[in-house]
Design goal:
SH3 type barrels; 4 domains; 5-stranded antiparallel β-sheet; 12 strands; 26% helix; extended; P-loop_NTPase; SH3 domain; cell adhesion molecule binding; SH3_domain; SH3 domain-containing protein
Length: 254
């Protein structure tokens, strides 16, 4: 988005560059695409005075969320430390007009923005993640350690579950684009371990309106034959016959 040449006050929004739609590109992606162009360039633009004024007044820019799958310690002032699993909201992919770093907010509990600073951009992040992976391979240790490491990798490969890789995280990019979602239902809480009973009773006592414990309901199962195309009727009776549910079950011998 910028002003058109010729001294007039028109503001133009770049819609396509050589036939490629760039309306949803980040600032960094748009600049990289323009810099890499060679030869004739064809731009599709449209007037966007109102959109430009809104961006200037509200300071709108990039806004998307990423989850980090690598570690990074700050090397200069203003940088944030990164740990695998942390989520950041990126607000500027072209900070101070230069490539290489993103301005972002670290998200804490309840998706609150708790810290603002710079993180490596996607290209640098992939380089750092690759270096860490090579370093882990080089530091595999003794042949005994390497043997067990290979067994773990083989097990993870058979399982096909990327979350079973606590070391390499190689099945994910350095930054995974994510979106914040708020479920429209209350998620269940499952407690395990020796203190599960104590914790459950504490939650039920202190937060009776928020937590509830499922109750065991005993029921009897009775098979009643019916004379319709060899089918049977299953009757489920709850306590004191308070609820009866009938399900039509096809006879397996028919």
């Amino acid at each position: 988005m910028g002003q058109s040449p010729g001294g007039n006050d028109r503001v133009l929004l770049v819609v396509q560059v050589n036939g490629v739609d760039v309306r949803w590109a980040t600032r960094e992606e748009a600049v990289q695409r323009l810099v890499q162009l060679q030869g004739p360039v064809q731009l599709l633009v449209q007037a966007a005075r109102e959109e430009y004024e809104e961006v200037v007044s509200s300071q709108k820019g990039d806004s998307f969320h990423v989850r980090a799958h690598f570690s990074h310690e700050p090397t200069s002032k203003g940088e944030l430390a990164l740990h695998p699993g942390e989520v950041f909201r990126v607000v500027d992919t072209l900070h101070n007009g230069a490539l290489g770093s993103w301005l972002a907010f670290r998200l804490g509990r309840n998706h609150q923005e708790i810290q603002r600073g710079l993180i490596p951009n996607a290209v640098r992040a992939e380089e750092l993640a690759a270096q860490q992976a090579r370093r882990r391979d080089a530091d595999s240790g003794s042949s005994r350690t390497s043997f067990f490491r290979r067994r773990r990798r083989a097990t993870r490969a058979k399982s096909g579950d990327p979350w079973e890789d606590p070391e390499g995280l190689s099945k994910f990019p350095a930054y995974e684009r994510v979106a914040l979602k708020h479920p429209g239902f209350i998620r269940p809480v499952v407690l395990f371990g020796p203190m599960a009973d104590v914790a459950r009773e504490r939650l039920l006592r202190d937060y009776p309106l928020k937590y509830a414990c499922p109750r065991k309901v005993s029921c009897s199962l009775e098979i009643i034959p019916v004379h319709e195309s060899g089918s049977t009727c299953t009757s489920m009776k709850g306590p004191e016959d308070s609820a009866i549910q009938f399900l039509r079950v096809q006879d397996s011998n028919s």
